[in-house]
Amino acid sequence: MIVSSESAEHTETLVADAAVTGRLRQAVRSVPDFPSPGVLFRDVTPILADADLLNYTFQVWHDLLETHGTTFDVVMGLESRGFIFGAPLAQQLGVGFVPARKPGKLPDVSARVNYDLEYGASALELPAGAVVSGQRVLIVDDVLATGGTAEAACRLVEQVGAEVAAVTFLIDVTALQGMQRLRQYATSVVLQY
What we know:
alpha/beta; 11 strands
């Protein structure tokens, strides 16, 4: 119904059909030169602020995830907008939700991955016991840019012996080629820019 696929010498990426996502694309606000000169920021706040559009977003995203043909044991959302989208997706999928946090936010940490960004370094941490060996994890975030955070999240899941079942995003900024860093994983996106 809503899926086309793309492959660039890696695991297939599922992409929601443009005919279905037109309403969402119109709602995303483009903000030039934010957070720094030359960057075109994709603001999803208009989607979040409109109850009907937000519900529609989750319907489209859920339908897209069902086309992976796999099951998930838990959804892991990346700080912080991955929390906004990950928890409702987990509820729709009938599984639990786990936040992957920035350092210093958790009282008990089971795993940590340090990674480099285009403008510095960061880390992600998992709450102790939240993801366990053998679980199939769906990683969720709002925007895929260069792929550094998503790649670190995959390493975090694997560090505790769990499996990255899929990685999904609301938006993929294709010019930044972040998907290349995730080519070994099943991936899906609702919107591409």
